[in-house]
Amino acid sequence: MLRNLRHKLIIAFIGFIIIPLCLLGTVTYFLSQNAIQKRYGEHTEETLKALGRNLQYVLSEINNVSDAGITSPALQPFLTASATSDANELLETNEAEMALRRVFFIHPAVQYVALYRLDGRMFKTFRPQGQTIPYQTFIRHPIVGQAIEKNGHPVWIGPYEQPDLSANDRVFTQVRLVKEMNTFDNRAILLMEVKIGELHRMFSQTPLTYRQNGRYLIASKQGMVLYDSRMELGGTNLLKSAPFQPDIEYQSYRGILQDEDSLFSVYKLPASEWYLVSVASWASVSHDSTTIARWVGGVLLLSLIAALLFNMLFVNRITRTIIQIVRLMKRAERGDLTVRAKLSGNDELTRLSGGFNSMVGTIQHLLEEVKREQERKKRAELALLQAQIHPHFLFNTLESINVLAIQNEGQKVSQMIYRLGNILRISISDREHIPIRRELEHLRSYLEIQSFRFENLFSYEIQIPTHLYEYSILKLTLQPLVENSIQHGFEGINRTGFISITAEERQGSIVLTIRDNGKGMTADQLALLAESGMANQTGMQAKTAAGGRLVWAHKAANVSPQGRMDRRGLGVANVADRIRISYGKAYGLFLCSMPGEGTTVRCVIPKYSQEELHEAERHAGG
């Protein structure tokens, strides 16, 4: 690959100065970040473990309160008492609820206590009637089954974990089984709610250098935030923004929280399904490394500016001319031979520019000569193919006129000569492309001549939409195809032949279809056509199917009338060749035939009007 002097100097400067500086700055930045993250993570791990111990102490203190309460002699009698009347039951309920207040509300964090006896009675404290959980709703809750399985050990529920068990999303809930102390029989389920104010005091007393940007969270194993020290994220799912790996005692990683890059430290609380999470803004944690990165970026920017100034002031003045010639050479390689270099001065660069101009001019002249030679070759090839059709048709027509003259059919001879004159007038015209209307006049004249010659041998029908009449077609396209049906398709059949000529538009093309009900062609005859050269030059061969059908390729190669190729395929092959040469590989003939079922030929040509064709020829010639 070509590299000019300026590019080499820039590459050398970037490779030996800019890239090492970038690598040094990048490595320094990432190493400092990793060091900061590691140091901060170690410090935070110890802090979280201390907070975890404090949290366990708070929960243990509440557990001690509930232990003392459910074993209190003041509460135990109400686990089995049974009133004999409604008045006694009401009195017993009041006494039980007063006992709940005395034994449980000695701790300021306790907010609500309810005792659900297994026999259907319920005692509660300090909650309006509309917010009390009905007995049947609570006793069927899955948490009751977990409490029974714990056999007296408390089950803790964080805020938002079981919203149907609490009317307040700012409390922790304890559920535990209550036993009778004398028999250790299961008697009731205790529901106790604890305020989280103690957590606020505990976290607020923790020294945090990032307090204005950081927060502490308590999250469940499923990622739900049970507690947020800043009272913003309660009830949200932490795993969606900063997923952590469960069952790992401690982990530290970076993530996004509230559209802010943050550092997460996650500590699994012992003997619990809760996680203590510390969240700190990465900007506040990595302030020092960010300052270093800015200095490194500034040095790199100054180095880049210096490199650009050096290139503009010293290198560009010397290499501008060479770069201009290289760009012009690339344009010439893409086919633009009109490019010329500007000549100024009288040095080696000027001589190089003059040599380039001379070379491009010579190449342009040679290519124009080759183009004219190819055009002459194409016209000669078209003329040769058309000459192969004219003598064959003229010989058959004159033979027919001769027979009529011998039979003294003067009127028919006159009509046939008139029709022949119409045919010759179109055939010898200079224009290669004519309107479909004139091609149909030529075809009707030919069919009338053949009808005079072969009476009662065939009939024909032409159904072509009139709006297609003015579109262009190669002259003498349809007549050889119809001639093939008359001369070979109806030979030896015991029924009146019929030829149908139709046309339709299809995706920007015109499809002309010639069908006959003649004797068709055998598989051997189709195979002979395929072997005789009716295949395109790109390797797509004409194929003979098992039922005897032949699908002719879009384009056919030049066909020689020598060897095994008979007249049956000569006219059709000539038409296919002319279409290929005039319109290209996308157009041509399709042939389908079976013995006894006739033959169908489809001719596909582009949909060009006469004006469009003349414009295309004018541009090609100019």
From TrEMBL:
PROSITE patterns: HAMP (PS50885). Residues 363-390 form a coiled coil. The keyword Kinase applies. Keywords: Cell membrane, Coiled coil, Kinase, Membrane, Phosphoprotein, Transferase, Transmembrane, Transmembrane helix. Residues 316-368 form the HAMP domain. GO terms for molecular function: kinase activity. This is Sensor histidine kinase. It comes from Brevibacillus ruminantium.
